[in-house]
Amino acid sequence: MSTWRELLQQHLGSISDALQNLLLSARHGGSVLIHLFLTLLLIPVVTFYLLKDWDRLIQALAQKLPPRSADPLRQLAHEIDVVLGQFLRGQVLVMTCMATFYGLGLHFTGLSSGLALGITAGLLVFISYVGVFIGFVLAILTALIQDPSLLLPVCGVFAAGHVLEGSFITPRLVGERIGLHPVMVILALLSFGQLLGFFGIVIALPASAVARILLGHLHLTWWSKEETDA
Question: I need a surface site. Which of 15, 59, 100, 185 has the fewest CB within 10 A?
Answer without folding.
Answer: 15
